[in-house]
């Protein structure tokens, strides 16, 4: 039996305009002109470019993001004496740092003022975009899965930049804005609070992250392999499956004992993706007040074996300026950097 494959539309796809709900929005107009760039089909990319619908909330989101970006650039230029050439040259090392005076208002623009302004505008931008997402879902009468996935994503950033600094009582606990400064924060939070990889919520986040990539790889590979039989028309396949979906389900049932249909595979992917950031948010929030050292927490709860010569009594009676656990091979504050510690000896400063 011949398989009929639905051809891609020869003209851009658009909904009728204007709609009743779009007319209620003072900025409810589409921007740009829908075009089709057919060469993108060679790279398995949708050939349609445009249009963009922003509306009131989308416009506010883009505007506040641009203002925040401009403030960040001004803060970076201030560090290089307003020399734009140096700004480009040292772009990776430019850092807009948070204030270091607790939760008080910054003393000046240079000492946390730029960071606070950028933070405020970008937080507003993210919030406005979330409202835009919700408004669009209500416009099309869709289920709010996309909105809740967006909330899960911003829960991680909100935990890092807002919730945890508030709990710890200092904006300095938040990362600065810049390329290398974000990497420095990710490293420092692990070094300062034990080994972050022993954080059980971080472990769950990594599990869901790796699971998401595996599921997306399995799903994408399966759809591409059976697209000649129409499996890539997933919206119609959910309602009425054809040979492409049947073969895909049989393959995975024979491979691992069970299968996912065109609907449930997206349930799996959605849950794994949202739990990646949600578990990460909980891991960030609990760092510093649930425990001040995740390695000690893991030893106490039996999830990791203690290593090195440090005993429990030595950990409990440590000097205040030393970390809870002296990890092999890592320098310790107060010790000469040229004398790293090993597993058999611990030198006192």
From TrEMBL:
InterPro entries: Photo_II_D1/D2_sf (IPR036854), Photo_RC_L/M (IPR000484), Photo_RC_L/M_CS (IPR055265). The keyword Metal-binding applies. GO terms for molecular function: chlorophyll binding; metal ion binding. GO terms for cellular component: membrane. The chain crosses the membrane at residues 52-74, 113-133, 145-163, 201-218, 268-290. It is found in: Membrane. One of its GO terms (biological process) is photosynthetic electron transport in photosystem II. Signal peptide: none annotated. It is a multi-pass membrane protein. This is Reaction center protein M chain. It comes from Vulcanimicrobium alpinum.
